[in-house]
Records
---
Amino acid sequence: MNFRYSPKIKVKRMMITTNSAAAIHYTLRNGAGEILDSSEGKQPLHYLHGHGNLIPGMEAGLLGKRVGETFKIVVSPQEGYGLRDEGLVTIVPHSAFGGHTPAIGERFQAGHGDERYVIEVREITDEGITVDGNHPLAGVELHFDVEVVSIREATEEEISHGHIHGPGGHHH
Ligand code: ZN
């Protein structure tokens, strides 16, 4: 009998699919090449694929990728943090800040109850303070450089919770 063990055939590298618990390193730049965010020098980003934990364009770009692969993902605002809504830019009276004058670029939590959002101070005049409730990355085309670090199957519990547990995930 001519039998030869061939490890190449037996090893099947996992690919990212729904219910994969994956870890990635990434660097995010805008269209002008400025770095907006990066996992470099930090823990990789751990996430559960297919549960809306990442922006849609990122999940689409990661689907089917394998450990060790490096690639670019370009995400349109629609598949990222949405388009800017100028209706979320408003002028509030100085009294809204209780006599405290904020700095331009300063961010505050606004809203009431469970409906919380972040507003950023844009402009300050005698008439009032212009605040912007858009996500800072709304309207921005996102350029990601990505490396897949690890992939494993998520546990039943993680899938039912919609997020991963353990290192890089939820601890509860
Ligand atoms: Zn959980």
---
Amino acid sequence: MDLYPKLIMDTLEKVRYPGTGKSIVEMGMVADDIRIESNKVSFSMLFEKPNDPFIKSVVKAAETAILTYIDETIDIKGNILVKTKQLQKAEAPQLLPEVKNIIAVFSGKGGVGKSTVSANLAVSLAQLGYKTGLLDADIFGPSIPKMFGEEDAHPYLEKTGEKEMIVPVDKYGVKMLSIGFFVNKDDALVWRGTMAGNALKQLITDANWGELDYFIIDLPPGTSDIHLTIVQTLAVTGAVVVTTPQEVALADAKKGINMFTSEKVNVPVLGLIENMAWFSPAELPENKYYIFGKDGGKNLAEALQLPLLGQIPIVQSICEGGDAGKPVALLETGITAMAFRCLAENLVDRVNFRNENLDASKKVEMKRGMR
Ligand code: ADP
């Protein structure tokens, strides 16, 4: 059998995209990367959106067409790589050009301390001297304003050129905006979905974030359309995953990690944070009680070969600090403040390491291109 790219293209002409009824070749959905190695055929297909409902059926139809019209022994199953146009970062508009690193904070389930970690991480980064922004994107429970003692803040608008821009609230050296400033708690249900997604986009694109070293995004727990909106709107540097050592939390954290690393989302996971790692009573600070199990987060990180960025104990002052609007990371000393500072330093190291590697691989690519 004589296989060549044009034969594959001509065959794929016969496959129609159900959304338009047009041929997938005519629609430019077959990428120009058809590879043939003896009996094996592989290529990429481009879809507009990662949640295109026809992805599976169109890929299947393309496989079937090749097997039916050319030869049923061709090795094509599983060799079609799905790519989504929206996620091709190079093509995405460069939003927040003055922001160096965008870090998405994720948890598989609610209540594991994702917002507490986001708030304290942002404060620690600011204390280390980095220009830091924090976006509370948790539409299900926007708690960042309370943790910063800014529940009643009403961010104002400032005219920048032709446009009215939202001015983030500046507290503890962190520029901060929350979906909670704009959503009436009683209307929260109505806001979920598209409206919340659009409001969030506005908080990213229509706000004066200015120059930032780190832009921390406190995502909603679990997986939702909001996650996709964020990764499609912004070139996210990486995600950090917060979990407790408890089995149920670990299982959900794992699902989240799979989401980030999937073809559809494609955001690197920079590491795990184990929150509520143990409890130490104030009067016996040396004693550690592993209430939710021991080293669950650490073990998961090892199993997935991801860095463990920090282990944060259960300490009353963390909870009280959150309730009082003063994150514990503001303190100069103490084990909790140190734990968050250590976490921030580990994250910075990890991001620098990643950026250096990216730079190195870009240089290699450039060299290759020059040959
Ligand atoms: P999530 O954002 O994951 O829903 P929160 O950050 O709102 O979780 O935390 C849930 C509750 O647990 C809050 O009352 C918070 O103060 C408390 N909490 C979080 N982490 C700790 C910790 N390490 N020690 C003590 N309390 C904590």
